[in-house]
DNA sequence: TATTTTTGTAACAAAATTGTAAAAAAAACT
DNA sequence: AGTTTTTTTTACAATTTTGTTACAAAAATA
């Protein structure tokens, strides 16, 4: 709903019943998700591994390869949340085996509303994991210091010579990426991929503008930057002496 | 509240179906629990009494001694939360009727997500009990203090500059979670998972509204919060200077 | 020096985020 | 049961951030 085209979450729907798939596609796209479809197990694995969706809706009863195997195969290489669709009267053991490998399950018939809620919740869980794992939890010293520049990754706080600087997230992320490898010149392409995300297809000069904004906040003289420096013809880097 | 490697919670899994045990072990350890296994009722009682796990996952159908008896025996000497696994709905009456002291039950098939939620919820209950009994009995005032903010965890009482503020449970829990790690910016996703719970399916903006209500009670000027502050693009945190 | 390429910059437009109130729903309490 | 309190959802406005563009300035090249 609030997602731009670039970072829509992708959901892979695996079901051989066309009308069900259609309903799911309609509702998911209305909610702002991008959808992929697979009508049998083999195709499902293919698409999952090549497209790397953010979540998989997986029916148990499938042609060519059953849901259990799909689940296993996908899980072997991808850590994507899998939400199983099960009919109520399917064999208990079969379901049980499957359920335990999946993150969540929902029995048919289900309400669209409930399904959407489950999807949201499962996607959120991934987001939360990424946020905490990457940043704190692992006991990493959550600070980066380069010369007069200090970044506190827990507080998202930036200091220059002890003075707190108010950066936006985008600015902070760029600075964080550069400061994590001081001296290393980073191209705009790499910055776009690492900070903006690999599927981002905006203008590359966006990087320049963001750098300019950061400089406006951390440099005394933006025309003669001492911290975030340009390597002409290549990109930008943080001076580390 | 977060678990360090040394005091991981231990969970005893009692089930005679090897594949199920394996999957449970895998998922529980992924979530940071230590696991013990028992394949029959007799062994289960032995391990429970000697190892004193923090929680027991107990299947009803077991060789040598059935789950219900195991439950009784263990409960006779240990006050550990027991989560029963049942295959059929009819067995629920059995569990409830017999007053075995099982804390919770979950019917097969269940999802990993649901099981984890139940486990967490039951462990939380114990934590709460322990907190109130052990800490307050010893006279350790169970408090969090950050600047002008004081939380008394035993009394569920909040003070700002010495003045008692009346918060609801939800409000208190949010404030408590944030205040337990002042300065640390917490995303809405993490708050939802930690305060509302693993199984929560609601809207993420609920967090905003709760924060707003807390501010209405603890801040002089909600438009310029000095205690519970927004980190735009990330989440919320408690200012700790 | 003139030309081309690259980078800096400001201004505007678009998009995303947050604050807020109020209605609806759910839970707790009589 | 009905009533009150708490919580969630929803919608909208205000604000902030971000992206795009056009042009200027600087550096590199011929």
Describe this structure in words.
The structure is a homodimer of 241-residue chains. With 241 residues, the first copy, chain A, is of the alpha/beta class. Chain A has two domains: 10-128, Response regulator (Rossmann fold, 3-Layer(aba) Sandwich); 141-238, Winged helix-like DNA-binding domain superfamily/Winged helix DNA-binding domain (Arc Repressor Mutant, subunit A, Orthogonal Bundle). Chain A is built from eight helices and twelve strands. Chain A has helices spanning 18-30, 41-51, 67-77, 92-101, 112-135, 169-179, 188-196, 205-218, and strands at 10-14, 34-38, 55-59, 82-87, 104-108, 143-146, 149-152, 157-160, 163-165, 186-187, 228-231, 235-238. In chain A, strands 2-1-3-4-5 form a five-stranded parallel β-sheet, with helices on both faces. A four-stranded antiparallel β-sheet of chain A has the order 6-7-8-9, covered by helices on one side. Chain A has a three-stranded antiparallel β-sheet with strand order 10-12-11. In chain A, helix 2 runs parallel beside helix 3, helix 3 (67-77) runs parallel beside helix 4 and helix 6 (169-179) crosses helix 7. Chain A is elongated, with a radius of gyration of 23 Å. Chain A starts with 9 loop residues before the first strand and ends with a strand. The model of chain A is unreliable at 1-6 and 132-139 (pLDDT under 50). The structure holds a DNA duplex (30 and 30 nucleotides).
By CATH, the superfamily of the largest domain in chain A comes out as Response regulator
- The multimeric state of the shown protein is homodimer
Helix-strand sequence of chain A: EHEHEHEHEHEEEEHEHHEE
**Beta strand count of chain A:** 12
Q: In CATH's first tier, which class of the largest domain in chain A applies?
A: Alpha Beta
Tally of helical segments of chain A: 8
State the major sheet of chain A.
Answer: 5 strands, parallel
Task: Please give the share of residues in helix of chain A.
Answer: 40-55%
What value does the Rg of chain A take, in angstroms? 23 Å
Task: For the largest sheet of chain A, list the strands in their spatial order.
Answer: 2-1-3-4-5
Give me the secondary-structure category of chain A.
alpha/beta
Strand content of chain A: 15-25%
CATH topology of the largest domain in chain A: Rossmann fold
The coarse silhouette of chain A is: elongated
**Low-confidence parts of chain A:** 1-6, 132-139
Counted up, domains of chain A total 2
The greatest interface between two protein chains, and residues involved on each side, is: A-B, 33 and 33 residues
């Amino acid at each position: 709903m609030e997602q731009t085209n670039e970072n829509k979450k992708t959901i892979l729907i695996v079901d051989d019943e066309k009308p069900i798939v259609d309903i799911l596609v309609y509702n998911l796209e209305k909610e702002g998700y991008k959808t992929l479809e697979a009508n049998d197990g083999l195709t499902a694995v293919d698409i999952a591994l090549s497209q790397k969706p953010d979540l998989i809706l997986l029916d148990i009863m499938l042609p060519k390869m059953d849901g259990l195997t799909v689940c296993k195969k996908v899980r072997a290489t991808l850590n994507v949340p899998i939400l199983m669709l099960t009919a109520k009267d399917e064999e208990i053991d079969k379901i049980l085996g499957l359920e335990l490998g999946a993150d969540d399950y929902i029995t048919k018939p289900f309400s669209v509303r409930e399904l959407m809620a489950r999807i949201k919740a499962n996607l959120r869980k991934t987001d939360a994991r990424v946020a905490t794992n990457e940043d704190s939890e692992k006991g990493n010293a959550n600070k980066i210091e380069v010369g007069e520049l200090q970044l506190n990754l827990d507080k998202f706080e930036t200091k220059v010579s002890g003075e707190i600087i108010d950066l936006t997230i985008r600015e902070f992320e760029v600075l964080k990426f550069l400061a994590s490898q001081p001296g290393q010149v980073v191209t705009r392409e790499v910055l776009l991929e690492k900070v903006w995300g690999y599927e981002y297809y905006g203008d590359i000069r966006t990087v320049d503008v963001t750098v300019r904004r950061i400089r406006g906040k951390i440099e005394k003289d933006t025309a003669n930057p001492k911290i975030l420096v340009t390597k002409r013809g290549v990109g930008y880097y943080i001076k580390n002496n």
